[in-house]
Specification:
730 residues; Hypothetical protein af1432; Beta Polymerase, domain 2; Ubiquitin-like (UB roll); elongated; binds manganese (II) ion
């Protein structure tokens, strides 16, 4: 057939199903493609234009697509293989056609390598996701079908490689799109190159028995036909041998020879309406004995790819079993041409459809096997691909990431070590910023360095995947532990103060385990670290501890009042007889009992406030003591008094200091030396090492006034390893 004859056949085919087709444009596309491919030859030696023409023929004959699809099929290789560009096609034909051609070219450019199943599944999804217009994938499958039909001219390696790709990528996509005819042909052609011996064996055996098989087929067709005629049911009966690849698969999976294959024959009855489908089923089961467990009603519950039919397997004459599929003509069209048939019905010959028209197709591609009707409805509601993006690693693996993903997400998807050592990223060989948005089909390469500083906190905001974010958090958690503990502690203390609660109550030996249980951490440092790296918040910590702390606080207050009632000296030694004033002037009251609160241990120079205990004197608090916070005073304002330091203060007052240090040898020695050089009277010293190398030291001392206190604290602060020196309160 000459090129011209082949083109005329194409026109004739198109006219046969689409009288409204724009043959002028189609002819222009043919002539432009012919001109672009001028001088190029196929491996067979034929002029190259034969290939696009044949692809257009498949698009017309097998799929009956619209004029735009035919034009795009004719032009499908001009952008990839000739100097023509998107803009040229857009100008000469239409932007939509240029997009279709560009889309097909993009799929052509993808490099496939055989991978494990999950990788292949990602590749299939990527292909579909990249085909924004479903016609792109339909043209691409047609392109592949023609290449497979003419594979004999390729080298043996190329034959194997393309066949594998077809078997693993294109045939499953054709199946998902419900295009059974093309799927079968793709599978059979692939098998021919993948297992030439196995393929030959099946084909030659089928050939040898063809007369016998045909006789059987005709006999069954006649039996069914006659019965349906008698009943006056309009029908068409077709019989066929199952296709080689499906026989091959059965032989392999069931380890059987060709003669042992259970059902080699398939019959199909096409009727006018759904009611007749069930009538025919009754007739078939009346003529032949049905094999139990083989009846399937895909009319009541259609397959996710839109397939509808009744299936049954029955025992025929001479004990030869066969399958019968019963469906209406419309169901048949959909079974054979799948999405293409839907597409044809939907567009009503009006040319290109909008994006939205194909959305449902993409949605139903996802959950195929074993999905029930409810899943199917659900799958129609959820767009499976809008929230995913598929990109390649430099060696051809597909990474599946959330839509909007960046090189950071990609790097962490490969391995956390790759992310943590990332210093740069390339997309399609060009350097990009870390917040670059990845697109389907991009080839992404991450540049790493041993000297990399590690992730920055900003990455957490840039990353789209929770996987990347959690790995970055992990890094901060591990690498920045000290810093995290310090930061976490600072924000926790601030939050606690804000809530009017006491750090002392948190760290007290009897309450700490209860409080840690409330936040589910093993130690305070663990909790601080978590707050520091962002895995937990200070607000949450305080709000979970609050109830318990308030209870402790009330208990302390009660104890305090009890203590003052019993007039027991509560301070550390040495005990001193209470003087009437103790250096404190209580406004408006002479000769009243004064005691210093245990929670904040004020010293001269501190701003103070007094609280009238029940009949046993005035308790003096620092103004910044949480127990004297305005919130705590509510409802008993009358019991709070203004108090000031007099000029006749005592020689010394008991108070406490808290020191947080990095633990080391001789730490206590250095602290003792500092206390000694400042002439500090020490009443008590408690030290506790934490698991991660810190020491928490509490000093009970006596000081003259705030100035001495300040000097001591400064001195302590100068000691190497000391992180903080503070006066506990509350
Ligand atoms: Mn091609």
């Amino acid at each position: 057939m000459t090129v011209q004859e082949q083109y005329e056949l194409l026109e004739k085919t198109i006219r046969g199903y689409n009288p409204a087709a724009d043959l002028g444009h189609i002819c222009a596309a043919f002539e432009y493609a012919d001109q672009c491919h001028q001088g190029q030859k196929r491996k067979s030696g034929e002029p190259y234009i034969i290939h696009p023409l044949a692809v257009a023929q498949i698009v017309a004959e097998e799929l009956k697509l619209d004029s735009e699809s035919i034009e795009a099929a004719l032009l499908h290789d001009v952008i990839e293989d000739t100097p023509a560009e998107h803009a040229d096609v857009a100008r000469l034909f239409s932007p939509t056609i240029a997009d279709l051609v560009e889309g097909v070219s993009k799929l052509t450019r993808i490099q496939y390598a055989t991978k494990e199943d999950e990788q292949m599944e990602n590749l299939r999804k990527m292909l579909i996701a990249m085909s924004k217009d479903i016609r792109v994938i339909l043209i691409k499958i047609s392109d592949r079908l023609h290449n497979m039909r003419t594979m004999e001219y390729q080298s043996p390696e190329k034959q194997k490689q393309k066949s594998l790709e077809t078997m693993e990528i294109y045939a499953p996509i054709a199946h998902r799109l419900g295009m059974q005819r093309m799927k079968w042909e793709l599978e059979d052609l692939s098998l021919k190159y993948l297992d030439p011996v196995g393929y030959e064996e099946i084909v030659s055996r089928l050939d040898a028995k063809s007369q016998e098989y045909e006789a059987f087929t005709r006999r069954i067709q006649r039996q069914i036909g006659e019965r349906l005629d008698q009943l006056g049911i309009e029908h068409m009966v077709y019989g066929r041998i199952k296709h080689p690849y499906s026989i091959y698969r059965k032989m392999f999976s069931q380890n059987k020879s060709l003669d042992e294959i259970f059902d080699l024959f398939a019959f199909r009855v096409l009727v006018e309406n759904v009611g007749d489908c069930y009538n025919v089923l009754g007739v078939i089961h009346d003529i032949y004995k049905p094999i139990p467990g083989r009846f399937k009603d895909y009319i009541g519950t259609q397959k996710p790819n839109g397939y509808q039919s009744l299936h049954t397997t029955v025992m025929g004459p001479d004990g030869i079993p066969f399958e019968v599929q019963i469906r209406t003509r419309e169901m048949h069209e959909i079974a054979e041409y799948g999405v293409a048939a839907h597409w044809k019905y939907k567009q009503n010959g009006q040319g290109a459809g909008t994006e939205g028209k194909y959305e449902w197709v993409r949605r139903l591609l996802e959950n195929q096997e074993g999905a029930d009707a409810e899943d199917y409805i659900h799958s129609l509601k959820v767009d499976m691909f809008a929230d995913e993006v598929f990109v390649f690693t430099p060696n051809g693996d597909v990474q599946n990431l959330p839509a909007g993903a960046t090189p950071i997400d990609f790097a962490y998807a490969i391995h956390s070590a790759v992310g943590n050592r990332m210093v740069g990223a390339k997309v399609n060989n060009r350097i990009v910023t870390f917040d670059h948005t990845l697109k389907n089909g991009d080839i992404v390469e991450i540049m790493t360095s041993k000297a990399a500083k590690g992730p920055s906190r900003d990455w957490m905001k840039i990353a789209k995947s929770s996987e990347a974010r959690s790995k970055i958090r992990q890094w901060f958690k591990k690498e920045k532990k000290e810093e995290n503990i310090a930061n976490g502690r600072a924000s926790f203390e601030q939050e606690l103060k804000h809530a009017g609660l006491s750090m002392k109550d948190v760290t007290a030996a009897d309450s700490l385990p209860i409080l840690l249980k409330k936040v589910s951490y093993g130690s305070l440092d663990e909790m601080y670290a978590a707050i520091g790296y962002g895995g937990f918040t200070a607000q949450k910590a305080v709000s979970r501890m609050k109830g318990e702390l308030q209870r402790i606080q009330r208990q302390h207050q009660a104890e305090e009042e009890q203590a003052s009632r019993l007039e027991e000296p509560v301070q550390s030694p040495p005990p001193r007889p209470l003087k009437s004033e103790q250096g404190i002037i209580v406004e408006g009251l002479d000769n009243c009992l004064v005691k210093f609160s245990r929670c904040c241990t004020p010293v001269p120079g501190d701003e103070i406030v007094g609280f009238i205990t029940r009949g046993y004197g005035v308790s003096v608090h620092r103004c910044d003591c949480p127990n004297a916070a305005p919130a705590r005073r509510a409802g008993q304002e009358g019991r709070w008094l203004k108090v000031t330091w007099g000029s006749d203060t005592n020689e010394s007052y008991p108070t406490s200091i808290e020191v947080v240090c990095k633990d080391r040898m001789n730490l206590i020695l250095d602290i003792s030396a500092a206390l000694s050089t400042t002439n500090t009277f020490v009443c008590g010293l408690q030290s506790r090492s934490t698991e991660d190398g810190f020491a928490l030291i509490r000093l009970e001392i006596r000081v003259r006034d705030g100035a001495q206190m300040k000097a001591i604290m400064n001195k302590l602060h100068q000691i190497s390893g000391v992180l903080s020196v503070s006066r506990p309160a509350g």
